[in-house]
Write a structure and sequence with these properties.
It contains 7 helices and 23 strands. The chain is an alpha+beta fold. It has 3 domains: 38-129, RNA Polymerase Alpha Subunit, Chain A, domain 2; 134-225, Beta Complex (RNA Polymerase Alpha Subunit, Chain A, domain 2); 227-316, RNA Polymerase Alpha Subunit, Chain A, domain 2, CATH 2.170.120. The strands form 6 sheets. The protein has a 7-stranded mixed beta sheet with strand order 18-23-21-20-17-19-22. The longest helix has 20 residues, at 16-35. It is elongated and about 145 Å long. The relative contact order is 0.10.
């Protein structure tokens, strides 16, 4: 029994460094093998069509992605998942309308960027090949506007235009022939006071597989400034020609003014009416012993100003005592 224990003790303690190194190496090999073990997974890959027969366009139902089941080492699968360029290509150069394209596993496998994975299957496994003759034509652009210009402005007849006025549409002949015009996204005219020139996006046609020669156009909108009539209330009447030694009273002392003209000029006058815009020159009536005077208004370019009422009564009061000289 003593010999057995001695033998075990000797086995455990002899070459202890080498034995520990061997243990560490075995653990490391096990970890590496486990990390790079074979596994299976599914990958969604985008699908694209190429090598269409000349003058043909694909019009069938084409999924955006296909589900590819692959098997391989973890490193290879990780490489495949990290590659953003991976895709499945449908080469239709040898196909005709009505035939069926089958996703062959070896072909899909050759298209993958990683050579360390094996393709086990593809879903869907096949698709119908639907081809149609390509056609191209030009159609008018119909600009779309929304909202109303500022008060006093309106859109001129035929005042909305697109540049270019026509664009090319291309795609399956049956779909292209149904397109009579292409509309733009709406251009907002709300509160506009001047001609407008703005880039607008072209709305894609509802027909599938149809392409436009441009993504946007320039929309021009021409406005017309209109004549308007506005009222300016309670404007004081300035008195002219009253003797320095007298007081002249008007009735009414304030009148309403009616202003007519193009909207910009009218709005400018309303925003800042000049001092003495409406006045009464009483010198003449005083000389003629009259007690009424016609009201006058300053001449303002681009507008017509009328006082309401146009005549005022005035009273000449007693003389004002002169201020004594110092």
């Amino acid at each position: 029994m003593t010999d057995l224990l001695h033998a075990l003790r000797t086995f455990a303690t002899e070459n202890i460094g080498l034995k520990l190194l061997a243990l560490l190496l075995s653990i490391l090999i096990h970890v590496v093998v486990q990390r790079d073990s074979v596994r299976e997974t599914e990958v969604d890959l985008p699908i694209t069509v190429q090598n269409l027969p000349k003058g043909q366009v694909f019009v069938g139902a084409l999924p955006e992605t296909v589900k590819v089941r692959v098997r391989g080492r973890r490193g290879g699968i990780r490489e495949l998942l990290a590659d953003r360029t991976a895709k499945v290509v449908l080469d239709l150069g040898a196909y005709r309308d009505g035939e069926r394209y089958v996703f062959e596993q070896d072909v899909v496998e050759q298209q993958l960027p990683s050579r360390h994975v094996e393709v086990l299957g593809v879903q869907p496994a096949s698709i119908d090949v639907r081809l149609e003759a390509m056609e191209e034509r030009t159609v008018p652009v119909e600009p779309t506007v929304q909202g109303e210009p500022a008060a006093g402005f309106r859109v001129l007849p035929k005042g909305v235009r697109a540049e270019p006025a026509r664009v090319r549409v291309s795609g399956p002949a049956s779909q292209v022939r149904r397109i009579l015009a292409v509309r733009t996204a709406a251009v907002d005219l709300a509160g506009t006071e001047a001609d407008l020139r703005q880039t607008a996006r072209l709305l894609p046609p509802a027909e599938r597989h149809v392409r436009l020669s441009a993504e946007e156009v320039t929309v021009e909108v021409n406005l017309e400034e209109q004549s308007v009539s506005r009222a300016l209330a309670a404007q004081p009447v300035a008195v002219r020609g009253c003797p320095n030694t007298s007081r002249c009273l008007l009735e009414p002392a304030d009148v309403e003014l009616r202003i007519e003209g193009l909207v910009r000029a009218v709005n400018a006058l309303l925003a800042k009416p000049p001092e003495g815009l409406v006045f009464a020159d009483v010198a003449g009536p005083i000389d003629r012993n009259e007690r009424q005077v016609r009201l006058g208004v300053l001449a303002i370019k681009g507008v017509l100003v009328t006082a309401v009422p146009a005549v005022a009564k005035f009273s000449l009061l007693s003389e004002i005592p002169p201020v004594p000289a110092p």
